[in-house]
Design goal:
4-stranded parallel sheet, 13 helices, alpha/beta
Length: 367
């Protein structure tokens, strides 16, 4: 997905976001409503980015994570080195088109191997699926359907919701935050796992995201044993009047504070770095509002950002993929029960049938 690094980038970022029917389906009026909504929301969202320092830190953290991961891969897997990271965002710079153009300029169009590694641990058609649709689109436009010389040889890491390293990184951040509470109340602190919500129209057609997020939460709670803190999974960042997956994080926290629960930890469980959803929505809205109501013990666990455990997990996921020989997961080969998108069908056919070849490895980080 990405995020605007500066305030002038907010408008173009929102324009691309609301134009994406995979993420925010607006029906036949998408081309009209998308630009209208983005223009109206730009001043408000610019103010939010100004409140967190003038832009999203997601590019900084993504570049750091990717570079460190590739350094680990070079050391662990010299047979496939060098591993070169490229960053591609869906709605912000560097866009997929820019990444693909650089990829070809660097010589990977002659059967160079590339791995599209989603940084969404839990798969959704609206996030990873949308990013892969965009990647497939630019592959076709820039290389053609049957490129001379074979073209870039793609494979995909499309989901990794219960990887032990990911679970460990989340668990360590939760334990660090729990340690800030007095010992006598520590086991009673409620853990609120918060993930980005989805429109119910996406959920109802069979998107696997809710179940994959739940599997991450379950794995984290298993890792935290013998701690038995009460916990809930909630959803944030609803946009517009249509029905979205709930309960919403803000409503959840408010309801528990009003019921007398003053101590909670918010855990951004579907995000791999800080951005506006953590730094503004959770920190400056949800936590602030909770404390105004008397929830002075409502805090947030740190994001993964530069966690060495997390970066080691990225390298482990990528290394296993490079050794495994699969073009993508078996899950990715299946369409959602209610999917009618021909673009999704063609994209899946391409990546499922992709064949690997070429020389050194090229790891592409797709947000």
């Amino acid at each position: 997905m990405g995020g605007p690094s500066t305030l002038p980038e907010v408008g173009p970022f929102l324009s691309r976001l609301f134009a994406d029917a995979d993420l925010i389906p607006l029906g036949r009026l998408q081309s009209y409503l998308g630009p209208l909504i983005s223009r109206r929301r730009t001043p408000k969202i610019q103010a939010q980015y100004a409140a967190i320092g003038g832009g999203s830190p997601i590019r900084k953290w993504s570049e750091h994570q990717a570079a460190e991961m590739c350094a680990i891969l070079d050391a662990r897997h010299p047979e496939s080195a060098p591993h070169k990271p490229y960053l591609a965002f869906r709605y912000a710079d560097p866009l997929t088109e820019e990444m693909y153009t650089r990829l070809l300029a660097d010589g990977f169009g002659k059967q160079g191997r590339a791995v599209a590694f989603t940084q969404y641990p839990q798969y959704s058609c609206s996030t990873t699926g949308s990013s892969l649709n965009e990647l497939w689109k630019w592959r076709t436009r820039l290389e053609g359907k049957e490129p001379e010389g074979g073209g870039v040889q793609w494979s995909v890491i499309d989901r990794w919701p219960t990887h032990p390293g990911l679970v460990e990184a989340f668990a360590q951040n939760i334990e660090a935050q729990l340690a800030t509470y007095p010992e006598e109340i520590r086991n009673d602190v409620i853990l609120i796992f918060s993930a980005h919500s989805l429109p119910m129209s996406v959920v109802n057609r069979g998107d696997t995201y809710p179940s994959e997020v739940a599997s991450t939460v379950s794995a984290i709670m298993t890792r935290l044993h013998p701690r038995k803190n009460p916990h809930r999974l909630s959803w944030q960042s609803q946009v517009g009047p249509s029905a979205w997956l709930g309960a919403q994080t803000s409503d959840t926290v408010t309801a528990y504070v009003k019921k007398g629960h003053r101590n909670m930890i918010l855990i951004p469980v579907a995000f791999t770095s800080d951005h506006i959803e953590t730094l503004f929505e959770l920190d400056q809205e949800v936590v602030h509002e909770a404390r105004q109501l008397g929830g002075d013990g409502v805090t947030r666990a740190g994001s993964l950002n530069g966690s060495r455990v997390f970066i080691e997990a990225l390298a482990d996921v990528a290394g296993a993929h490079l050794r495994g020989g699969e073009a993508c997961s078996r899950q990715m080969a299946m369409r959602c029960q209610g999917c009618k998108s021909e673009r999704c069908l063609e994209q899946k056919r391409f990546f499922v049938n992709a064949r690997k070849g070429g020389g050194g490895e090229d790891v592409v980080v797709v947000r």
